[in-house]
């Protein structure tokens, strides 16, 4: 049997996932130790500067060195540690020295007397301390990194749904991630909301997500853009009416249409060049196209409609495959129409809905 580790270290890129898992582990450790409220202690590890790092490390040292009042095993949690990241505070020489002190404190913990738990997000795993923790602690990495982050978010959503007692139909989770983005808290709230909506049906369909979930990730007016690029004039007019009935403005709608059109222009160019093909599973050949052309997008590495390769591949497949992909000429004409509409609402500020209705008629008939 392997010897017990001195402490538990839970880390990852997402503070919500790390914090939730750490809370569960803390409660489990407290139950195993039969620790009452006097034997439990939580130390806040969030620090905005070196002085706060020092204060957190000192409080944690005092906590793990304190003897239980009634002689039982203590449980101490250093939570929300953020000074292990690649930040100004995390890189400071004084912080690095304090992290060495923290390592010495953890190495000296007697697990028979104290169950120590540290949770940190984000963490620069290239540094010596996280590597030491991997070897010497009960080490848990949650949330994934890089491409694995999306899979981890999908896993968190599915786990939440299972706890609530509902399921996601094929494509529904992917659409939820595309609309919300990497905001774990909001994903959990949306899952709960969707679960309440489906009720006894217990299956969240893709249509439910499309109808009820705001497109937070893109800042997009999802219904209007969906209707317009589906080629459905009646739906587009109705979506515009709903937008303006609730006091909306024309500019963000035009911006949303331009963003979608910009993405489709790039998809159309790749399709015409033979680099990708719109298939039932999305854009076939997309990774190869990204390898060939991704480096050309200088200065547009953040998620943006100006860089096709910063978009969610599943989302791109939905955009390109949801309706017949417009021709390059039609997409270029769309851009000209959007510019003209923007100029027209400056001259007709009190007729914004009419301007966009006329735009829709011109483009979709």
Verbal overview:
- The chain is α/β, with parallel strands linked by helices and 365 residues long.
- The protein has 3 domains: 7-141, Rossmann fold; 148-212, Helicase, Ruva Protein, domain 3 (Orthogonal Bundle); 222-364, Zinc Finger, Delta Prime, domain 3 (Up-down Bundle).
- Helices cover 56% and strands 11% of the residues.
- The strands form 3 sheets. It has a 5-stranded parallel beta sheet with strand order 2-3-4-1-5, with helices on both faces. A two-stranded parallel ribbon has the order 6-7.
What are the key terms here?
11% strand; five-stranded parallel sheet; 9 strands; alpha/beta; Zinc Finger, Delta Prime, domain 3; two-stranded parallel sheet; Helicase, Ruva Protein, domain 3; 56% helix; 365 residues; elongated
Gyration radius from CA atoms, angstroms = 26 Å
Q: Give the helix/strand class.
A: alpha/beta
Strand order of the largest sheet: 2-3-4-1-5
State mean pLDDT (0 to 100 scale): 86
* CATH fold label of the largest domain: Zinc Finger, Delta Prime, domain 3
How many strand segments? 9
CATH top level of the largest domain is Mainly Alpha
Q: Terminal Cα separation, in Å?
A: 74 Å
The rough form would be described as elongated
Helix content: 55-70%
Low-confidence stretches: none
The helix/strand order is EHEHEHHEHEHEHHEHHHHEEHHHH
What does the main sheet amount to? Answer: 5 strands, parallel
